[in-house]
UniProtKB/TrEMBL annotation:
Protein's UniProt name: TetR/AcrR family transcriptional regulator
Residue stretches spanning the membrane: none
Superkingdom: Bacteria
Keywords: DNA-binding
Positions of the HTH tetR-type domain: 1-61
DNA-binding positions: 24-43
SUPFAM superfamilies: Homeodomain-like
Database matches in InterPro entries: Homeodomain-like_sf, HTH-type_Tx_Regulator, HTH_TetR, TetR_C_Firmicutes
Originating species: Macrococcus armenti
């Protein structure tokens, strides 16, 4: 594992036990078994480290969106693309569940939650822009995001007992009002 990833992993592991404000650079360095100069070669401080982690995950979610919705404007039926996007998103969250569980349920980071919800809002609005018009799309998207966040929160809080495919199907069905 490269040192930057080791530092990032160490912060998340420490956040399993401590609130972010309690964590010091010394604690991160001890957990990562590196010296302070190595830490500062990658990050200006613990806030820069956390911001870097958050931005990295948000950027990866954007990559998933761009790949899954690349030809969305060319298709009449958007449902397969939405299903694929949800599946890939939940799989990504599952692969990085320690990070998401820590920052969404154990020690919620307002900065991260706001960026994640903003990302989802933008993504849903992109889908709606290329499909039939709703009378109040902002309210539909807010409702959808709230439910999606609730499902994700519950799933992460309970240590992801169901596989990602089940969670993405639950969210997808709720969007389509199937099997509520």
């Amino acid at each position: 594992m490269v040192k930057k990833q080791l530092i990032e992993t160490s912060l998340i592991q420490l956040m399993e036990t401590y609130h972010f404000r309690e964590i010091t650079i010394k604690m991160i360095c001890t957990e990562a078994q590196i010296n302070r100069s190595t830490f500062y070669a990658y990050f200006d401080g613990k806030y820069a480290l956390l911001d870097s982690l958050i931005d990295s995950h948000i950027m990866q979610l954007e990559v998933i969106l761009n790949e899954d919705f690349a030809n969305l404007h060319l298709t009449k039926d958007k449902r397969p693309s939405v299903k694929k996007y949800l599946t890939h998103t939940i799989e990504y969250i599952y692969e990085h569940r320690q990070f998401f569980r820590v920052l969404l349920t154990l020690h919620p980071a307002q900065n991260f939650t706001q960026k994640l919800l903003s990302n989802w809002r933008t993504n849903y609005m992109k889908v709606l822009e290329t499909s039939a018009t709703l009378q109040y799309p902002d309210y539909f998207v807010s409702y959808t995001i709230g439910g999606q966040y609730g499902v994700l929160y519950f799933w992460l809080q309970n240590d992801c007992p169901e596989p990602p495919e089940v969670i993405s199907t639950i969210i997808y069905n709720n969007i389509l009002k199937i099997n509520r």
